[in-house]
Design a protein that fits this description.
By secondary structure, this protein is of the alpha+beta class. The protein has one domain: NADH Oxidase (3-Layer(aba) Sandwich). It is built from seven helices and four strands; from the N terminus they run ααβααβαβαβα. It has a four-stranded antiparallel beta sheet, with helices on both faces. The longest helix has 18 residues. The two termini are 32 Å apart. It binds flavin mononucleotide. Flavin mononucleotide binds next to strand 3.
């Protein structure tokens, strides 16, 4: 199923073609492809090149996959049971060389995941990020040290058949993709004053 972004201005196919499916195929993702998407994360920009991100990577059938799955909220578990790769992203909140706060750690981790998602799109794969998981349970389960903030659970795999979904995700799967116009978030002069670029 394709859901290209109905963009108002031209964007690269990778950007327009990325979307977050609920229906995933159970087909395994090749390890080389898993490494490619993580390589894309590796090359993201970061403040002071601190690379504050880390990922727990679970492949279906292993303990890490099960641990991530067990931490998902029910609504996410409902559609994620066949996802071949489940990950958790973490942001290191201090610079390793001086222990000072890195106030861009979460920003940079998001950039790394954005790169990962575009690389996945280029490989014909899909990513669905999730805030809906029990971060404290995951911290305990995976012994994640203090100072590393759990950011998102991440599903990775091939798109599946939407007809296999239960009702709420099925409706979301088929819903049109919507965004506020560029003019609603681009300002000039003062915050809140429309930039009027068009
Ligand atoms: C940080 C983050 C957390 C999200 N959490 C969830 C979630 O818990 N469950 C879910 O079904 N989708 C979740 N999503 C997916 C968003 O709902 C989705 O990205 C958004 O509706 C835009 O759709 P698109 O990615 O298909 O363009 C999350 C996305 C992000 C980036």
């Amino acid at each position: 199923m394709d859901k290209p972004a109905p963009a108002d201005h031209p964007v690269h196919d990778l950007i327009g073609g990325r979307w977050s499916p609920y229906a995933f195929s159970s087909e395994a993702v090749a390890r080389e492809q898993v490494l490619s998407v993580l390589e894309a994360a590796r090359w993201a920009a970061s403040s002071y090149n601190a690379q504050p991100w880390s990922f727990l990577v679970g492949l279906k059938g292993d303990e890490t996959w099960q641990g991530v799955y067990d931490c998902l909220v029910d609504a996410n578990r409902a559609w994620a049971s066949e996802v071949p790769v489940l990950m958790l992203s973490m942001a290191h909140e201090t610079f390793p060389w001086n222990g000072k706060p890195n106030r861009h750690a979460q920003y940079d981790t998001g950039q790394a995941v954005a790169a990962l998602a575009l690389q996945a799109t280029d490989l014909g794969l899909f990513v669905h990020q999730m805030a809906g998981f029990d971060a404290e349970a995951a911290r305990t389960r995976f012994a994640i040290p203090p100072g590393h903030t759990l950011m998102a659970a991440i599903a990775l795999g091939s798109a599946g058949d939407p007809d296999t979904l239960s009702v709420p995700p099925a409706a979301r799967e088929r819903a049109p993709r919507e965004r506020g116009a560029v003019s609603t978030f681009t300002f000039a002069g003062q915050w809140g004053e429309e930039a009027r670029l068009a």
